[in-house]
User: Fold this.
Amino acid sequence: MKNSNSVWHPNTQMSEWSEFPEIVSAKGMWLYDSKGGKMLDGVASMWCNVWGHSKPELISEIIKQTKTLQHCSLFNLTHSPAEQLSKKLLNLNPKMHSIFFSDNGSTAMEISIKLALQYWRNIGENKKTNIASLENGYHGDTFGAMSVGYVPEFFSKFRSKLFSTIQFPVPRSFRIPEKMSSKEYEDQCVVKIEKRLEKDNSIAAFVMESGAQMAGGVIIYPKNFQRRIAKICKKNDVLLVLDEIATGFGRLGSMIEYESQNSIPDIVSFGKMITGGYQTFAATLTTKKISNSFLGEFSQMKHLFHGHTYTGNPTAAALSLKNLELYKKYNLIKKIQKTSKIFKERTEEISNIGLVGDVRHKGMVMGIELVRNKKSNKPVTFSQSTNKVVFEEGRKNNIYFRTLGNIIMLVPPLAISQKDLNFLIDGTIKTIKSLSGKLL
Ligand SMILES: *Cc1c(COP(=O)(O)O)cnc(C)c1O
Assistant:
């Protein structure tokens, strides 16, 4: 077991890799490596790339902002990129009133949790200290985020140091109890949540991804599920905290996913696509009710106890502002709605492959669950990790994959053309077919 890599790669068994392809440049949908090879970026560089790489308008915005103000803190000061971006985000997000900027999705979720807990202290409700969430949800890799979005396969090693949360099953269509329709299963999930929230007045907030669980394996919520949860929360005085880090800004086909789900949160976070995928940045938005509770005399100590060195970084903020302008200029949401029809049209073709147990898609994301055979629905296994095997096979077809367990994720840059999306799907089909000979 040796590897010559000094760079520790994320969620990776380093001994499986003697070397990693070195990417030297990227343009449009393509990543170019040091040996002259190229791969289509099938995961939007971890679900964040919007326009493809090297988009001229975004590059010039970075250069422009960098020439005048690279970084200056928001401690005691402000700057135009943060101010303008907050106006823009508040215009986009119905019912939201103030914004806290941070550096990545995990920090945005830490802030969401702190806001929710401190809100109840601020208004003198000291019993509300628990957080409810959905099983299989994912909200980031830091301790608060791991506690709330507890995915056992990822985080069991840290269990003893995570705070406990109240977790509810999530409605799904695949792997549900036998003899139950997905609608019956959904109703059962909702009733469980409703009953607990009605009798348990210790719950401060209900935290969930908006529209779908992504890292949990592309579990797309049934049509009214999120709206039903929002209603239950409202009725029982529980804050609704939504995570749109992966699903907002067009990934599921809507600019603001909570709006299309008819559910108004008290707190909502965005990350990943906010800068178009070029810099690290995130935002947590709250309603007036929440932010007003933090006002008072200094001595009351009601202000938010949170801050980061790079909070509201001007370069990232200017870039986000430009990115959001381009959404409008190029009518990106319309384009996504059109392009994503290709996923739908080709679902059956993918489902028919022997190793495919289930295919789920919405907007610009598709999850393909690989199974040994359609009868057992047992996950595939290989002599190496599924991710490594799929990655190597995908590379032969010029596609960059990063699987989640036994699930192939197709999460291309949002502005991908129909032609490139078909190339991605063709390469995915070829890749899956070539896997059968490699099963353990
Ligand atoms: C990626 C992700 C996060 C964490 O964001 P990072 O920028 O990786 O810290 C949180 N929630 C969801 C839904 C995500 O997909």
In short: The chain has a mean pLDDT of 96. The chain has 16 helices and 16 strands. Residues 331-438 form a domain with the Aspartate Aminotransferase, domain 1 fold (CATH 3.90.1150.10).
